[in-house]
């Protein structure tokens, strides 16, 4: 049984790795592609990029709970394959889109299928125990980190051969990923742990209301909202900010994102195994959020390229918070509701991702325009730091009111 679980963990690790490589490939050239299709400067293109991200997030918000609940009924494997197929279609549209509007078609398709992350996290919950769950979530985070080492670095280099080249490569990788999953990936949810699909539990609001059954989760949701909003200061803005302020090329952007991936992998695969057992899950959350806050404040006032690389260190060290939060939440939910939980969390991410990119890219565009009272490209990072600090305070309050008392699986 132990060997079977280790093998299954390896399969899902590779699936997430290839998925994240494909996603990372396109980031270094996205700002230039939008700028070209919209015929606007990069700082103005950031708003258009934010709208694209919000479109994807809106569709994922509506559909992720359905995906999560379907995985509780039919198993994780078929849902992961369905999600990967949707991403393959998305990359085809991104590769050949003649206008900015066509990019929406691909983003809508990808948002509907919900990506593979939701079900992958439920998969990990299926094969883990309360003792090793944080470690396994950290390994999945490490797979994303490793994918973001390889993907952006290759994407930046491929950008030399044309803005569409990374999209072709991402599409091919996604097809390979789908084939790998079809022939290799085993099912993780046994028939006796499945439940019937219920529409009332498969809508965004319904899923989030179901999570209120567990007091600690309900309290931490508010904290997560601010964490996800703050993260968009980096996720939605990094390539536009560095391209505008420091005139970074796709190759340098790709390299910087590869460094982010390397640091995240180091933290979530290696460092978390040392820190979390020593200081505990709860303290890991506070320390991680504190480091995130510091990193964002430093980004806000960076005025040299080298500073961005140095300031990545405290920001990425904040990655110890994520797996600890996941472990705290999953410990409150029965085995046959893990898919619903992950669907609900993905919906929460998507909900904040509808407004997060609009806030952060809009703020960047405004403070780099003649309308602004002063030039301040780092404004999104400053706001992100404030949000992250609030999330830490809310998490502390929530865990004081509802101490961790895991429920038994049934």
Describe the protein:
With 410 residues, the protein is mainly alpha-helical. Helix content is 79%, strand content 0%. It is built from 16 helices and no strands. Helix 9 runs parallel beside helix 15 (338-366). The longest helix is centred in the N-terminal third of the chain and has 37 residues, at 2-38. The two termini are 20 Å apart. Residues 405-410 have low confidence and may be disordered.
List keywords for this structure.
410 residues; mainly alpha; 16 helices; 0% strand; disordered C terminus
Number of helices: 16
Low-confidence stretches: 405-410
The pLDDT mean sits at: 84
Specify the oligomeric state: single chain
Structural category: mainly alpha
Distance between the termini: 20 Å
Helix content: over 70%
Tell me the number of strands: 0
Specify Rg, calculated over alpha carbons: 20 Å
| Residue fraction in strands | under 5%
Tell the overall outline: globular
Order of helices and strands: HHHHHHHHHHHHHHHH
Brief account:
It contains 16 helices and no strands. By secondary structure, the protein is mainly α.
Topology:
Elements: H1 2-38, H2 42-74, H3 76-96, H4 100-113, H5 117-127, H6 133-158, H7 165-184, H8 204-210, H9 215-235, H10 238-245, H11 250-279, H12 281-300, H13 305-317, H14 321-330, H15 338-366, H16 379-401
């Amino acid at each position: 049984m132990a060997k079977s679980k280790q093998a299954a963990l390896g399969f899902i690790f590779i699936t997430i790795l290839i998925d994240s490589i494909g996603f990372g490939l396109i980031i270094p050239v996205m700002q230039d592609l939008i700028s070209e299709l919209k015929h606007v400067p990069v700082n103005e293109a950031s708003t258009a990029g934010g709208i694209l991200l919000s479109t994807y997030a809106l569709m994922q918000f509506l559909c992720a709970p359905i995906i999560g609940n379907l995985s509780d009924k039919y198993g994780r494997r078929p849902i992961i394959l369905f999600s990967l197929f949707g991403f393959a279609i998305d990359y085809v549209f991104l590769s050949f889109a003649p206008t900015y509007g066509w990019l929406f078609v691909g983003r809508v398709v990808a948002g509907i299928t919900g990506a593979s992350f939701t079900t992958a996290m439920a998969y990990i919950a299926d094969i883990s125990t309360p003792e090793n769950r944080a470690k396994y979530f950290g390994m999945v985070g490490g797979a994303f980190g490793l994918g973001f080492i390889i993907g952006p670095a290759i994407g930046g280099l491929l950008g030399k051969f044309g803005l569409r080249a990374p999209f072709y490569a991402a599409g091919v990788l996604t097809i390979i990923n789908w084939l790998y999953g079809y022939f290799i990936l085993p099912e993780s949810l046994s028939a006796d742990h499945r439940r019937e699909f219920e529409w009332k539990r498969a809508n965004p609001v319904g899923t989030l209301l179901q999570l209120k059954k567990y007091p600690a989760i309900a309290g931490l949701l508010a904290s997560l909202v601010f964490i996800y909003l703050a993260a968009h200061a980096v996720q939605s803005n990094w390539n536009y900010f560095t391209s505008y302020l420091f005139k970074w090329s796709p190759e340098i952007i790709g390299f910087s994102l590869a460094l982010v991936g390397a640091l995240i992998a180091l933290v979530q695969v290696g460092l978390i195994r040392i820190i979390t057992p020593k200081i505990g899950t709860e303290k890991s959350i506070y320390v991680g959020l504190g480091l995130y806050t510091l990193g964002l404040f430093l980004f806000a006032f960076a005025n040299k390229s080298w500073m961005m690389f140095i300031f990545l260190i405290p920001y990425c060290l904040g990655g110890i918070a994520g797996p600890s939060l996941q472990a705290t939440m999953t410990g409150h939910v029965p085995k046959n509701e893990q898919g619903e939980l992950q669907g609900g969390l993905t919906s929460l991410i998507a909900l904040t991702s509808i407004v997060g990119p609009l806030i952060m890219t809009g703020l960047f565009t405004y403070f780099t325009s003649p309308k602004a009272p002063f030039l301040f490209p780092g404004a999104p990072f400053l706001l992100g730091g404030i949000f992250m600090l609030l999330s830490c305070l809310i998490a502390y309050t929530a865990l004081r009111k509802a101490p961790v008392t895991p429920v038994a699986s049934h």
